[in-house]
Structure formats: structure tokens, C-alpha cells
Specification:
The complex is a heterodimer of chains A (about 575) and B (about 160). Helices cover about 55% and strands about 5% of the residues of chain A. Chain A is an alpha/beta fold. In chain A, strands 1, 2, 3, 4, 5 and 6 form a six-stranded mixed β-sheet that branches. In chain A, helix 1 runs antiparallel to helix 2, helix 17 packs across helix 19 and helix 20 runs antiparallel to helix 21. Chain A is elongated. Chain B is mainly alpha-helical and about 160 residues long. The longest helix of chain B is centred in the N-terminal third of the chain and has 17 residues. The chains are: A alpha/beta (about 575), B mainly alpha (about 160). Chains A and B meet through helix 8, helix 11, helix 15, helix 21 and helix 23 of A and helix 1, helix 2, helix 3, helix 4 and helix 6 of B.
């Protein structure tokens, strides 16, 4: 960490280091300044103000260039003739200037502003090409000091922010930090660019600085933006905007580059959680994308967070096929916050960063609302994945109200997760074994899948009409047994299974839409596994020609009756909101 | 995809057009498949950059509804372009136990496990690499004879990094 450096030469005090929280020196300067007149001196023995050389390797020039991203900070006007108060006012301004230098914004103390009238200061700032001016007063009230500051636009003199802080002179740095958080948020929000910066709400200056640095880092394409956001949420665990960014799947960051400046803008909105900002910004964005792209953009999982965050402030295009598991109940912001945190952690897990934050956050959501079903589901899935049977049992005892189908699904999932393969193989009750076979794929237990399949076939033969059981076992074979055979390296068996399935599903083999069934086979079998000697080029044409309804077909494969219960469970565990 | 594998890109192109059309009506299930098929076609045309972008787009459209195959293809791309850590993370999404797996993820489990082990090995994370190699060996212990050569190679590598 680089310390701040003050050049105490005559004229303005220049902040020359970027990194904040070279507070040690500033604190020393503050205390020295406050104690002025009591014979205090700097560490080098010279009288205050203290001088400190620029740190080696500082990437900033001694005096930063003034531009429209620069705010000039006038030393606060002390109310009264107290010399110590004058010192405190100057130091306060220096701390503010340092705090406001981060990412693409900066600030510097400008003593030239002092002799000017308050109404002349914005004009002066505009003349030297600064973007804003910060000034104010420092007042002593009893044993406390009160600082009142405002941020004004240099060109228009419009007041962008106003803040008053009060406390002991000993806590001057804390007071300056509190004031800085308000001013910095307002000043950063004011910066031009394709990014919506609204809704960044945090009382923590470190969190805000980390967040702004992360945004700058993200735009540069640096990889450290996630770490910076991690730091931001550590500094302020309630910083929803930072959590929303962290909720981005790792891949979305890459996908963002495909959309040019459009996607960053969308994502920045997601970072800006203020519904009004989103409502203003979104129509402009939507107008720039084609209908198809628009639909795709809105289906990005991360952008579901916009819906969460914006609380219905703008209409989300309704999917042709409404998915009940995507419904968000946005009535409880605090629960939503926890849920967003949980989703963030879940994405982190998916990206290969094992993290227990998902279950912690889901627990927090449940503590706030015991009926938050999505959070309960998420926690259930996390504990199940982790194999913590005791925790799963305890959670099961506290389950919220669920529909009976889901209860059955989850009970099966619970049993199967912890059941021994031998127990599964010995159980021929059909449904349970089928579910075991299905769910074993979730936990990479391919030997269980393989061992359970004969029982599935036997159960189907016993329980289904003859006209159905062949098709059923064929589809089950493709859906469940084939992946297990491939994973286990039983290629010959896999090839035979595909050949038999192709024959069973060939046109004329059954009453159910044969084109769809062949398509299902074609869509299912991995094309790179050399398992497909029975599909010839004529079949390709047949597939394309007969496929009048891909939507129905995909429903048939993924949401149909073959193993719909467990698939439904899968979907419910993943998708949902409080 | 079958057409792509068979080199019949004309048919694949027609299917892709159909999928594009269907994706307008069903952006949840079909859109990832449409993007994925375009990626497969791009791969067949050796346009790996476009393929990578399309695969990423398919995954970003829906992590849960995009086939595991796309993650596997992307992992291979990352591994081939010296993004070892990205590749490892992508393979790990296929090898980690999870409620989020689709059954077809299993098609890519074994090669992903092997690639993950190799990447860990390359990164010097020997213990983790050894554990992944062992899992692979346990999985493929009874594999067909045609695959035993690969198993033997892995067994030999495991013996090198964990002599005991």
C-alpha cells in the first residue's frame, strides 16, 4: 500500500498518491495540525505542516493534471478565529481530496479558491477545466466540530451533493471518511460514459473505493475486479451493488465483450440497483437491440437480477412459455439481498471456487423469512451436494410449505444421495430405483446408474403395458444408461444400446411421433463418441424435415414424462426467487 | 450435430436456421442449443475464435439448459490456448458432484476428469492431480480393451507423481 504524499511547498497541497489509506501520515498530519501551537513537530524535527517525499514507484506525477474528472477542494472555511480549527479545516480538505481520488475520478486541494467568493468558485473551477468544486465550513460547537460540505458542478454550479458530519476533533479522519463516502458516490455517479452509475449505496468509504476501483478494473479488462469486489463486500456486507456484480457467472464477463458497449451498460445497470435508474436507462438500451437479441439478452441468467433488483420498475418481456420457477416475489428487499448473495456464491461455486457462502447466505435468508422457499431449496441442494446428511435431515424438519410433488422429489433425492449402492440394487420398487439411477448422474455415481438399470428395466417390464415398456426402457436406456456406459468406458455396450434404440425408434416402430423420437435420439447421443453407425445422411434430412416443432421436441426430451419428477426437482432447485 | 460430425454442413446449416427460428419462441431451452450448433459448425470450419464466443454465449444464455458438451468443448479450447486455470475450472464444472448436472454431462465426465487431472498436474498441484487420476482409474477400471491404453498411461503417470 502506498502512503499518501503531501507536498507542503507554498501553494496548493497536492495529493500525489493514488492509493487511499495512507492514513497513518494523514492522521499524523491531523494530530500535528490540531496540536499546533503546543510546540508539536514533524517526525523529521521540522515544524508542521509535515513534508513527506513521494514514495518510490509512485505512478502518479507530482501534480495530477486537472480535467473534467477532477474536483477542486477548497480548504474548509473555519467559523471563528481558532488557529487549530484553521489547521483542522485544511487537513480535512486534504483527506477529502485523497479519498476522492480513485478509479477514474480525482480531487485536489486548491488554495486558490480560498480568497474567492463562494459563488465565484465554480466559475474558477470551470476556467481551470476542473469538473466540480467542493467547499464548506468547519465549526466548533462545544467539544465537537461540525463540517458541512457540498459538491457543485463547475459549469452549472448545480449542487450535486451536500453532507454534514459532526463529532470529536479526535475523530477527524472518521468524519472526513463519512463525508467522503457521500461526496465520492455523487462525484463518481456524475462521470460521463456508457455506464449507468446509479443506485450505489453504501456508508462505507473503503467499500465504495474498492467498488469504483473494481469498475475501472473491469473496464480495463483486468482480472482483479472480482477480488476488489470481494474486498468491497467484506468492508460492507450489505453492499448490494457489489454483490450483484459478484453474482455474474464467470462466463458472462466474457460474453459481455460480444455486445460491445451495450452489455457493460446492461451490467452496470445491474450493479446500479436503484429502480429509477434502471427504469430510465433500460428503454434506451432495449431500443438498440434487435428483437431476437433482446430476447436472448433478457434470458441471460445474470440479468434476471435486474428483475430482482429493479423490483418491477420496468417490464420484462414475457417468455412465450412462462416458467413458474422464474417468478420473483420482490416484496422483501432484505430477503432478496440474501438471495442475491446466495446466487453469487453459487455462481462462484460453478466457476470452480468452492465456497460455503451460498449456504451461509441461504441460511441468512431463511432466518429473515422461514418461508423463503427458493433459499430453502438452495440450501437443501448445497447440503445435499456436500453430503452432509445430518444437516439435510435437520433442514428437512424445518421445510417450508411445499407442494406434494416436490416433497416426494426431495425425499427421493435425500434417500438416494445417502443410500448405499447395494441397497439401491436390491430395491426393485421401480420408481425409487429409477430415481436413484437418474440422480446418480448428479453425483457422478456411474457404477450406481449402471447397477440400477437392470432393476429399472425389470420394473418397467412388470409394471407397464407391453406396448409401452419397450419404448420406455429404450428412452431410459438412452437417457440414463448410455451416459453411464460412456463414462465407465463400456463403449461396445454403448454402441449396441444406440443401435438397438435406433431400430426401436425407427419410423413405424410405434404410435408416438416417430420423427420426434428419431430427433430425440439424434439430439441425445454425443456426436463425438463414435456411437452412431446407424444414423445415415438420409436420416439427417428426415430429422430436419420432420422437425416441425423443436419446442415440443425439446419439451419431450427435457420436461416430459420419462423422468419428469426428478427433472422438475432439478429445475426447482436451481431456478427461483423469494 | 450429427450432420456436423458427418461433414454435412449444408444440413447442419439448415438445422441451425430452424433452431434460430425456434429460439425466438423458446429462449429458455432452444436458444442455448442454437448457439451451440452454430459453435459446432464454426468448429467444423476451423473458426475456433467464433466457436469459443458462441459457446460462451450459449452458456451465458442458460448455464442449466446448455448441454455439458459446450463446457467440455470450451474447456478443450481453453486448454489448447494455454488458459490452464480457465480450462481447469471449466472441467471442474463437469466433474464436481452437483444437483445441477444434466444426465448428458456424464458423456464428458471421464475425459473432463482426465483433463482436469492433467491440468492440475501441469500446475504443480500434485496431490489434487493424483486424486483426480485415481478417480479416473477407478472409473475406467473395467473399461473396454480399446480404452485400456489410455488407462495404462494414466496409471503410469500416477505412479510417477505418487510412487507409493
Amino acid at each position: 500500500m502506498q502512503p499518501a504524499s503531501l507536498d507542503a511547498s507554498p501553494g496548493p497541497i497536492h495529493i500525489t498518491a493514488v492509493t487511499r489509506f495512507g492514513c497513518g501520515f494523514l492522521l499524523a498530519a491531523t494530530l500535528v495540525a490540531a496540536a499546533d501551537g503546543l510546540g508539536a513537530q514533524c517526525a523529521d524535527g521540522t515544524p508542521p505542516p509535515c513534508r513527506r517525499p513521494a514514495p518510490a514507484g509512485s505512478r502518479r506525477p507530482a501534480a495530477a493534471v486537472i480535467d473534467s474528472a477532477t474536483a477542486l477542494v477548497a480548504p474548509l472555511s473555519p467559523v471563528g478565529a481558532d488557529t487549530a480549527l484553521r489547521r483542522l479545516a485544511a487537513t480535512f480538505a486534504a483527506v477529502i481530496a485523497e479519498n476522492l481520488t480513485v478509479g477514474d475520478v480525482r480531487a485536489r486541494v486548491a488554495d486558490d479558491l480560498v480568497p474567492l467568493r463562494v459563488d465565484q468558485r465554480p466559475q474558477y473551477a470551470a476556467r481551470v477545466r476542473a469538473g466540480a468544486v467542493i467547499d464548506g465550513t468547519l465549526l466548533k460547537i462545544g467539544t465537537s466540530v461540525r463540517a458541512a460540505l457540498r459538491l457543485r458542478d463547475a459549469k452549472t454550479a448545480e449542487e450535486l451533493a451536500r453532507v454534514t458530519v459532526e463529532g470529536s476533533p479526535d475523530s477527524l479522519l472518521t468524519l472526513a471518511d463519512r463525508a467522503s463516502a457521500v461526496l465520492l458516490a455523487a462525484w463518481w455517479r456524475r462521470q460521463p460514459g456508457p455506464y449507468d452509475r446509479g443506485g450505489i449505496v453504501t456508508p462505507s468509504l473503503p467499500a465504495l473505493r474498492y467498488y469504483i476501483t473494481a469498475m475501472a478494473s473491469w473496464r480495463r479488462g483486468s482480472d482483479d475486479w472480482r477480488k476488489l469486489l470481494d474486498s468491497a463486500v467484506r468492508a460492507d456486507p450489505e453492499f448490494l451493488a457489489a454483490w450483484a456484480w459478484l453474482a455474474l457467472p464467470a462466463t458472462t464477463n466474457v460474453a459481455a465483450s460480444m455486445f460491445g458497449d451495450l452489455m457493460p451498460q446492461l451490467i452496470a445497470i445491474m450493479g446500479g440497483i436503484d429502480p429509477d435508474s434502471a427504469r430510465r436507462a433500460l428503454p434506451r438500451i432495449v431500443g438498440r437491440v434487435s428483437p431476437t437479441a433482446r430476447q436472448e439478452v433478457f434470458r441471460l441468467p445474470s440479468l434476471d437480477l435486474i428483475a430482482t433488483i429493479s423490483a418491477g420498475a420496468f417490464p420484462i418481456p414475457t417468455p412465450v412459455e412462462p416458467d413458474p420457477y422464474r417468478a420473483w416475489d420482490l416484496a422483501q428487499p432484505s430477503v432478496d439481498h440474501r438471495y442475491v448473495v446466495a446466487v453469487a456464491a453459487r455462481h462462484a461455486t460453478l466457476a470452480g471456487f468452492p465456497d460455503t457462502a451460498a449456504d451461509r447466505a441461504a441460511r441468512a435468508a431463511l432466518a429473515l423469512d422461514a418461508d423463503c422457499v427458493p433459499a430453502w431449496r438452495l440450501l437443501f441442494a448445497e447440503l445435499l451436494d456436500r453430503g452432509d446428511s445430518a444437516a439435510v435431515r435437520a433442514l428437512w424438519a424445518r421445510r417450508p410449505k411445499l407442494d406434494s410433488t416436490e416433497v416426494a422429489d426431495l425425499e427421493q433425492a435425500n434417500v438416494i444421495r445417502f443410500a448405499a449402492p447395494a441397497w439401491i440394487a436390491a430395491d426393485t420398487s421401480g420408481e425409487r430405483v429409477m430415481t436413484a439411477v437418474f440422480l446418480s448422474g448428479r453425483w457422478n455415481r456411474f457404477h450406481v446408474m449402471h447397477a440400477g438399470f437392470p432393476a429399472v428395466r425389470r420394473a418397467a417390464q412388470e409394471q407397464l403395458p407391453a406396448s409401452m415398456h419397450q419404448r420406455f426402457t429404450t428412452m431410459m436406456g438412452l437417457m440414463q444408461h448410455l451416459p453411464a456406459l460412456v463414462a465407465l468406458g463400456f463403449r461396445d455396450s454403448a454402441r449396441a444400446l444406440v443401435s438397438n434404440a435406433a431400430a426401436a425408434l425407427a419410423p413405424g416402430a410405434g404410435p408416438v411421433g416417430t420423427g420426434d423420437q428419431v430427433s430425440a435420439l439424434a439430439a441425445w447421443v454425443p456426436p463425438d463418441s463414435a456411437l452412431l453407425p446407424t444414423i445415415d445422411s438420409a436420416a439427417f434430412e428426415a430429422i430436419v424435415t420432420s422437425n416441425a416443432s423443436l419446442q415440443r421436441r425439446s419439451q419431450g426430451i427435457f420436461g416430459g414424462n420419462v423422468s419428469g419428477g426428478a427433472l422438475g426437482l432439478h429445475r426447482r432447485l436451481w431456478i427461483g426467487g423469494c | 450435430m450429427l450432420a456436423v460430425v458427418a461433414g454435412n454442413l449444408r444440413t447442419a446449416g439448415r438445422a441451425a436456421a430452424l433452431l434460430d427460428s425456434a429460439a425466438r419462441e423458446d429462449s429458455v431451452y432452444v436458444a442455448p442449443l442454437a448457439l451451440g450448433l452454430h459453435a459446432e459448425i464454426a468448429l467444423a470450419r476451423a473458426d475456433s475464435v467464433a466457436a469459443e464466443s458462441l459457446l460462451v454465449a450459449a452458456l451465458a444464455t442458460s448455464v442449466t439448459h446448455a448441454p455439458g458438451r459446450y463446457r467440455w468443448l470450451l474447456a478443450q479450447r481453453y486448454a489448447a490456448t494455454n488458459h490452464a486455470e480457465l480450462a481447469r475450472r471449466m472441467t471442474h464444472t463437469l466433474t464436481m458432484p452437483s444437483q445441477l448436472h444434466r444426465p448428458d454431462d456424464a458423456f464428458y465426465y471421464a475425459p473432463a476428469l482426465k483433463l482436469e487431472a492433467e491440468l492440475l498436474d501441469r500446475q504443480g498441484r500434485t496431490d489434487e492431480a493424483a486424486a483426480a487420476y485415481e478417480t479416473f482409474l477407478a472409473l475406467r477400471a473395467g473399461a473396454d480393451a480399446s480404452l485400456q491404453g489410455e488407462v495404462a498411461v494414466v496409471r503410469a503417470r500416477l505412479a510417477q507423481i505418487r510412487p507409493d
